[in-house]
Structure formats: C-alpha cells, structure tokens
Amino acid sequence: MSADAYSRAGVDQGAADDAVGRLVAALATIRLDGPSRQVPLPGHYASVIRLDERTGIALSTDGVGTKLAVAEAMGRYDTVGIDCIAMNVNDVICVGAEPLAMLDYLAVDKADPEICEQVGTGLARGAELAGIEIPGGELAQLGEMIGGLDIAGACFGIVSLDRVIDGAAVEPGDPVIGLPSSGLHSNGYTLARRALEGIPLSDERLGRPLGEILLEPTEIYVRPVLELLRSQVEVRGLAHITSGGLGNLLRLRAEVGYEIDYPLEPQPVFELIRELASVPDDEMFEVFNMGCGFCCVVAPEDEEAALETLRISYPGAKAIGRAIEEPRRVLRRPR
C-alpha cells in the first residue's frame, strides 16, 4: 500500500517500523535474575506484567504528536491534555484492562504558567472522562528543544490474567463493530497540516473554524468498552484505530483477516485533506482513522447485544465488517 503523500510530508512509516523493530530487538537482550513477568503480547496495544498469579498490570505510553503545532498556531492548549489521556487509556482497554492512573510528562523550552494551566485543564478533563487519576508527573524545561512544547503520558491499569484480551479468540465470521471517531484524533497531523497549510485556521468552509476541527479532542472509549466487558457479551478482540487505520486490527493475535464492507462515514475534514493533497483512498485509510476510532470484535451470537450496549454512548456504532479466513489482510470495499 502506498504511503507516498505521507512520505512527502516528512513521515517515512517504513523507516519508523524498522527503527521500532531495532529498538525492540535491543530491549529483548535484557537479562533478569529471575523469570520474566511479561504476559506475551507482541505487537499489541498495551503490555501486561504479572503482579501475582491472578492479576496483571497493563501499561501503555504515548504522546500527542504534531497536533501540538496546531495548538501552538491557535494559541490554545486546553484540549491537548485530553488527547494525551485518550491515546493512552484507549490502548490500555484493548487488553481488557481497566485504566486506573496516568503520569504525564510535559517538556517545554521555558515554563509558561498560562500554557501549563491550559494543558492541566485538558489533562483533568480527560482524566474525568476516562475515570482515572493523575497522581504525579514531570515538567522539564529544555531551553534548546525544537518547538515549544511536547506532552506524553504513561498509563497503567489492572486486569485479571484469565481475562486478558489479545484477539487470539477471534474466528472467521466474527462481527467487527466500529465506534465513531471525533475527527482526526491524534494521528496523521504531519500530512494533514501539509495538505491544509494554505487554508487559514479561521476558515469555516466545513461549518466551523478549521482550527477548532483540527483541535477536536481524541475520543475516550473507556467507559462504554468497560461496560461491554462487564456484560454477558463475549468480547474477542479490541482495537484502537490510530496510525495505520483499520490495519490496526491485524495487531490482534488470531491468524485471520478482516473484510470491511460497511465502513463508518468519515468526517468532511478527511475528504478535504484527500482532495487538497491528492491522497489515494488506500493511503487515507492507512494514515487516518477515517471516522472509526475503535473496533470491538465479538462472538456472532452477541452482535445485537453488543450494539445495544455500545449505542448507549455511540448511537452511530455499527457492524462494519467481519473476520475472514484469509490471514493477516484487511480487505475494504471501495467507497
């Protein structure tokens, strides 16, 4: 699948994948005095460490990326904290864990009380939406850093080891339920900003100022997904749809593929990016969430019950496809 537009915008996904591979290989050389506590979940959204024979701690870390450049251009930082929470807690719930707390890391060229207060406001709002605490964090002043602000977080949650969800139970025919995104979330902003750079952030061709659309916070899926996990529905796989689009379904363990016949409707901003940057549909679906921010794979007999639970929070939730026998591929019906 081509990633030409993204590469031209400055992100070489192939090189990034190779870099991560080398980093992971280096970390694999760690030698401990005793056995590893890691639950084997290679390539999954969060890591799980055995606390004892019954309980695991789920861990995830992530940041907001170049969405911060939009915040800087708008002079508005009260939403990026929500993004930071969302990018972490949405990964933790993918292993069936309940997020409990997050630590934040804020790097600045110099400490600005007003900006820090705005970031803190977003972090507090995101924490409330996710039902987590923020017991601490770090503010680093880096006078020589490029750009004025970076923010990241490290989240942890708790999960019963016999209820870890890794996607191994997914079988051909299982329905994939898509939950709507709120927009771009926190991925693909290098390409988005390059495509939209000639348009003022005050432009209202999409119904409200473009800057507000680009700063729309990442959706936090914790509460409805936890409700699903606590129901009688057999949840077989959970996928946070970030960079890589619906290809993130392949991070689930089962040797299956996925056929997406009825994708959710993308927000108008995606079509504007596609037109202005001449990005093919395949690449759009690889770089962006295209209107679907999270997927739940459930047993076929539980499809209606799952939809009933999820539609309490997301009336637009629907089955967008099925798991198929053809392994390790995502097939998407052209729009």
Task: State the gist of this model.
With 335 residues, the protein is of the alpha+beta class.
Provide the CATH architecture of the largest domain. Alpha-Beta Complex
Query: What is the mean pLDDT?
Result: 95
Given as residue ranges, the uncertain stretches (5+ residues, pLDDT < 50) are: none
H/E element string? Answer: HHEEEHHEHEEEHHHEEHHEHEE
Question: What proportion of the residues form beta strands (DSSP E)?
Answer: 15-25%
Structural class: alpha+beta
Q: Could you give the count of β-strands?
A: 12
Determine the fraction of residues in helical runs and give it as a percent range. 25-40%
- What name does CATH use for the topology of the largest domain? Phosphoribosyl-aminoimidazole Synthetase, Chain A, domain 2
Number of helices: 11
What does this structure look like?
The chain has helices spanning 4-9, 13-27, 67-74, 80-92, 113-130, 189-196, 210-214, 222-230, 268-277, 281-287, 303-310; strands at 38-39, 47-50, 55-63, 98-108, 133-141, 149-160, 175-180, 235-240, 257-260, 292-298, 318-324, 330-332. It is globular, with a radius of gyration of 20 Å. It has 2 domains: 43-163, 60s Ribosomal Protein L30, Chain: A, CATH 3.30.1330; 175-332, Phosphoribosyl-aminoimidazole Synthetase, Chain A, domain 2 (Alpha-Beta Complex). It has 335 residues and is of the alpha+beta class. Strand 4 (98-108), helix 5 (113-130) and strand 5 form a beta-alpha-beta unit. The longest helix has 18 residues, at 113-130. The strands form 2 sheets. A 6-stranded mixed sheet has the order 1-2-3-6-4-5.
